[in-house]
């Protein structure tokens, strides 16, 4: 089988092996699974087949991002040069080894890497134990009047944790993100003295898992165990309904990693996002 035959353009409705492959790799690619379920045919998806006709790797393009899944050391797909000549790429996201393969390909195309961020990919399956709580903020779901406060928390979170080097904060895009999260995702907020001081939400949902993101506590309220209480309550609520949980946390963010360790999350792989 030559290289042109090994890679094939795929569509969910026509290729049942696509969903089966993603389900097999689900803990490692919740974002890609979520894009498939939410956007369907609007994505570009290719599968690499082995000599037995089984999918062994996947590449998804969605909203200027590439998601490689289980790439390994296979040959460079010949279609990729043509594709990159037509579409601009903002980010590559996935397991660190898979992203490294695409980073080398993009470097060969002359695309400069703006920043690469390394994460621990963590997973939780099973309801976590509830940490002891004495006082502290009220943990609740969002209310209709919370949108402005949620925007302020999301804006602070994006500026501190999300924006790559050199990127400018976009208030309108942040507002749209908050509106989408409020409409489509699960959210828990921490309220103290009538003020929202923290939040946690999901940012993707795959077949059997939620991906947690957007965890933020205002700086002046840190060090009180609020993030741990908030994350534990949120995880218990989702896991009790039968969902598995995934997240990725910066390797340099020791306080956040400590929070997730306490709840019961386990590191399952090295994860990376490369920004272009």
TrEMBL record:
Domain N-acetyltransferase: 137-276
Gene3D superfamilies: 3.40.630.30
Pfam entry (one): Acetyltransf_1
Xref: PROSITE patterns: GNAT
GO molecular function (one): acyltransferase activity, transferring groups other than amino-acyl groups
CDD domains: NAT_SF
Protein name as annotated: GNAT family N-acetyltransferase
Species the sequence originates in: Breznakiella homolactica
